[in-house]
Amino acid sequence: MSSAHDVNSAVDACSIQRTLEVIGDRWILLILRDVFRGVRRFSRIHSDLGIAKNLLSDRLNALVDADIVTRVPYQHRPLRHEYQLTDKGRDLSAALVALMHWGDTWCHHGDAPTVLLHADCGTEVQLHPWCTTCDRAVPATAIRSQPGPRVDSGYGLCDQSLNEPATRKTAPLPTTPTQSPRKRNAPHHGSTQPGGRYAPSP
């Protein structure tokens, strides 16, 4: 029988748990969606999402602190910034695409409100777990998991039930980078105040 320490260790070692601690907030995901689309300035994000300005400022500051976006000046008098994705932020593209495709299937009955296209050829972007050895897509039922090199617990996997035998382990679907959500709107202006905290323009 597993102990409370085993359970806590499994949760602490879980990449899903650690990721949700950074981007698990609803507003943060929607802000990231906008930034991927090219909506990068405070006033434009505020207008697009209808979020309270104090909440937007807080979430943008959290994304900057997590090195997911960075502030880049686009005007110096007065000083104004826009938010651009870092490499760490761009690496979230596949995760957002996976969420979008799930919503297309299960919330919109397959009738996607937005379609993502490969910018070079115009083909619709698909996202599947892929086996590089077999060179084919892998369904969820054919994926198993095992402890990674940083797991020092006998369990360690956040998605593994501690009451199930090891042969029944499953893992979250691995993804590979894919096309970012397309840009739809031209960004508008935002502004900053002294001290580095973002605030809307008058």
Please tag this protein with its features.
202 residues; alpha+beta; two-stranded antiparallel sheet
Q: What can you see in these coordinates?
A:
There is one protein chain. The protein is an alpha+beta fold. The protein is about 35% helix and about 10% strand. It contains seven helices and six strands; from the N terminus they run αααααββααββββ. β5 and β6 form a beta hairpin.
Protein structure class: alpha+beta
- Oligomeric state of this protein: single chain
Helical run tally:
7
Mean pLDDT: 79
The counted number of beta strands is 6
Order of helices and strands: HHHHHEEHHEEEE
What is the CA-atom radius of gyration, in angstroms? 20 Å
| Cα distance spanning the termini | 60 Å
Side by side, the strands of the main sheet go 1-2
Give the overall form: globular
Summarize the structure.
Helix content is 35%, strand content 11%. With 202 residues, it is of the alpha+beta class.
Secondary structure topology:
Layout: H1 4-13, H2 15-23, H3 26-37, H4 42-49, H5 53-65, E1 69-76, E2 79-85, H6 87-90, H7 93-106, E3 130-131, E4 136-137, E5 191-192, E6 198-199
Antiparallel strand pairs: 1-2, 3-4, 5-6
